[in-house]
């Protein structure tokens, strides 16, 4: 029983220390007033950052008519968080500092 408990705690510690490249929000940012819309916006940005690390053809956030421009942007984003000087793969963190409403429902 002690072995199972120790093994469970070890696994929990391993997953708790796993680094993620999740989006950080500026504490003073003004998000949309609708909490569902704010959550959808941040979740979509987070999912985009995760899928940007995959091959371009597998990215479900790329519109067919904007494929060329988006692939160029994805190539710029891919690997930008790594620091060669500090030997840290997650040195630069994605940080959302501003949200601007472009049309009625587009940000």
Find the count of extended strands (DSSP E, 2+ residues): 2
Largest sheet: 2 strands, parallel
Please report which band the strand proportion falls in: under 5%, 5-15%, 15-25%, 25-35%, 35-45% or over 45%.
under 5%
Write down the secondary-structure element order.
HEHHE
Q: Helical percent range?
A: 40-55%
Looking at the structure, what is the overall shape? Answer: extended
Structural class given helices, strands, pairing? mainly alpha
Describe this structure in words.
By secondary structure, the protein is mainly alpha-helical. It has a domain at 37-107. Helices cover 40% and strands 4% of the residues. It has helices at residues 2-16, 35-51, 67-77; strands at 24-25, 95-96. It has a two-stranded parallel sheet. The radius of gyration is 18 Å and the shape is extended. The protein starts with a helix and ends in an 11-residue tail after the last strand. The mean pLDDT is 78.
Structure at a glance:
The chain has 107 residues and is mainly alpha-helical.
Quick tags:
2 strands, two-stranded parallel sheet, 107 residues, 3 helices, extended, mainly alpha, single chain
Secondary-structure blueprint:
Blueprint: H1 2-16, E1 24-25, H2 35-51, H3 67-77, E2 95-96
Parallel strand pairs: 1-2
